[in-house]
From TrEMBL:
One of its GO terms (biological process) is methylation. Keywords: Magnesium, Metal-binding, Methyltransferase, Transferase. The lineage of its organism: Eukaryota, Viridiplantae, Streptophyta, Embryophyta, Tracheophyta. This is Uncharacterized protein. GO terms for molecular function: metal ion binding; methyltransferase activity. It comes from Turnera subulata.
Length: 374
């Protein structure tokens, strides 16, 4: 599986698109807003002499959440500058994701509304101009010139790896993570080691790349799915991937999928613990950790967004989870199993998510890290 070709949210504005199914991710961004606001406010107080505030969002995707962090940043800069009686700088905002991301939807459907809203909100009358550009490419390597960024943000992207880890097949060609599509309770120690080593390599590369691109004193706020030693539902990260794997196994048992296709498929993702992340940041050495928080979020969080008057039963909640996961995972799953099974697969996932929600096991563990460049 060529990760850069298939790792992207479902584009367009259709029924199963990320554009229509990203309320959960919106909740995560809003939940972590205090950390983002604190970092931007503190940074503003140090760089008020700058004419242009330059920032990048890594793994921006293409739904309505794409510009939500930018709006929060603009409001924080405006509030901070007003408090200090300083003129707000111009803004240059770079949207980064892999080349398969649907950047067209961002610039066709989202940006016009964003600029319209910015112009209509009169409190921003004295705000500097805001320039937005796309920068396609992998954030595991260099993307920007030296010392060119003041701030970097990323939400729910860094758990994804640059490749499926090597070493998941034995010397005689036997799959070592047989029956799983991710790290699970039944995964052997060698598989855990392979995933951890790949995450260490990728996250260290991310930190080294940003250490060159971010100015001294610049900031990063990173949010990604992690694992928890304290919550049994999150020991290996979010159980949603395990649930998808279980649905695929059912289809193999029913003769609807080839077992070999399942056994050789692994999601390129690793849900690190807070301890893992802290150690890697300290080992790489370019950033100081200002704040590190851990949050548990239920899978059906934010289902009522825009529908506060509606009552959602357990089946509707299961379908909600299944549908937003389809927007996230379909490109990867279809590349291995074909698009023809997607309806069946995600109908099964809907039922399984309903059970997880009822059992209190439908939880995602989230890490939020605020860092300062040394």
């Amino acid at each position: 599986m060529e990760v850069e070709q298939v790792l992207h949210m479902k584009g367009g504005e259709g029924e199963y698109s990320y554009y229509k199914n990203s309320l959960f991710q919106k909740y995560v961004i809003l939940k972590t807003r205090p950390v983002l606001g604190e970092a931007v406010s503190q940074l503003c107080r140090k760089i008020l002499t700058e004419d242009c505030f330059k920032m990048a969002d890594m793994g921006c995707s293409s739904g309505p959440n794409t510009l939500l962090p930018l709006w929060e940043i603009i409001e924080t800069i405006h509030s901070t500058c007003r408090t200090l009686n300083q003129k707000a700088p111009a803004l240059q905002f770079f949207l980064n994701d892999l080349t398969g991301n649907d950047f067209n939807t961002i610039f066709r459907s989202l940006l016009p509304c964003f600029y319209e809203k910015l112009g209509e909100d009169h409190k921003f009358d004295k705000f500097g101009p805001c320039f937005i550009a796309a920068v396609p490419g992998s954030f595991h390597g260099r993307l920007f010139p030296d010392n060119s960024l003041h701030f970097v943000h990323s939400s729910y992207a860094l758990q994804y790896l640059s490749q499926v880890p090597p070493g998941l097949v034995s010397e005689c060609g036997m799959p070592l993570n047989k029956g799983n599509i991710c790290l699970a309770k039944t995964s052997p120690a060698s598989v855990h080691k392979s995933f951890l080593e790949q995450f260490e390599e990728d996250f260290t590369s991310f930190l080294r790349s940003r250490s060159v691109e971010v100015i001294s004193g610049g900031r990063m706020v990173l949010t990604f799915m992690g694992s928890s030693d304290h919550n049994p539902a999150c020991v290996h990260g979010s159980g949603i991937w395990t649930a998808i794997g279980s649905c695929l196994k059912e289809m193999v048992d029913e003769g609807k999928l080839e077992e070999s296709k399942l056994d050789l498929f692994n999601i390129p993702a690793y849900h690190a613990s807070a301890k893992d992340v802290r150690q890697l940041i300290q080992r790489e050495g370019s950033f100081n950790i200002a704040r590190l928080e851990e949050i548990d979020i239920i899978w059906d969080a934010n289902i009522e967004d825009g529908n506060q008057d509606l009552v959602f039963d357990k089946c509707a909640r299961g379908k909600y989870v299944s549908t937003f996961m389809r927007a996230v995972a379909e490109s990867m799953l279809a590349s291995q199993f074909g698009s023809g099974i997607m309806d069946d697969l995600f109908n099964r996932l809907s039922l399984k998510c309903t059970s997880y929600l009822e059992e209190g096991m439908a939880i995602s563990h989230t890490l939020v890290i605020s860092m300062v460049k040394k």
